[in-house]
Write a structure and sequence with these properties.
Elements (H helix, E strand, L loop, with lengths): L1 H14 L7 E4 L6 E4 L1 H8 L5 H8 L1 H10 L3 E3 L2 H8 L1 H6 L4 H19 L31 H17 L9 E3 L10
Antiparallel strand pairs: 1-2, 3-4
Helix pairs in contact: 1-5, 1-7
């Protein structure tokens, strides 16, 4: 799962390399508006006639991508690092499958670490049903829920949450690295 996601992460990093140099911040509104200059992006990469990339850039998903990733000051992630700092590495690995696979595995490991920051916590696996278990007729009815106990648990949870400080994410915002300009590709 993580390796497939890493492959797509590399693909989109390659596809959108240099996109930050084509972002325009328009401040005439109360809220700044971020505009992506599609013609400049396609022209600098020599892909004006590329129907696929043109359709990708005109899609709603890309508009969401620009609005989410356009601000110059926000929390950075693995994708930002790939687009900004791994341009040459990805380009060099194009003709070398073993290096490409190694990089994909490194990315997959980083994705796994991002989702599982505490690897020592083991999740209990649900055992597979034994062979022929579907033929058994001793299915027990679902137990009735004790409404009083449910209310007690809800009240305990509310009491704990009211006394606890508000949950904040530990993500630190920073200036998003621009990476090399589009013309380099």
């Amino acid at each position: 799962d993580k390796e497939v996601r890493a492959i797509f992460l590399r693909l989109f990093a390659q596809l959108f390399q240099g996109y930050r140099s084509c972002l325009q911040l328009i401040r005439i509104h109360a809220e700044p508006v971020i505009h992506f200059h599609k013609a400049a992006f396609l022209g600098q990469r020599g892909l004006i006639e590329n129907d696929f990339l043109t359709k990708v850039l005109n899609g709603m998903a890309f508009a969401g991508f620009v609005s989410e990733r356009g601000p110059p000051f926000r929390t950075c992630d693995l994708f930002d690092e790939l687009v900004a700092f791994e341009v040459e590495r990805i380009k060099a690995e194009e003709g070398n499958p073993p290096k490409m696979i190694k990089h994909v595995r490194e990315l997959a490991e980083q994705l796994f670490k991002n989702e599982n920051p505490n690897p020592h916590i083991a999740f209990q696996k649900v055992p597979r049903p034994t062979e022929g278990s579907h033929l058994r007729v001793h299915i027990l009815p679902f137990p009735r829920i004790n409404e009083c106990r449910v209310q007690e648990l809800l009240q305990e949870g509310l009491a704990r949450s009211q006394g606890a400080p508000p949950a904040t994410r530990g993500d630190k915002k920073c200036v998003v690295p621009a990476g090399p300009p589009v013309g380099m590709f």
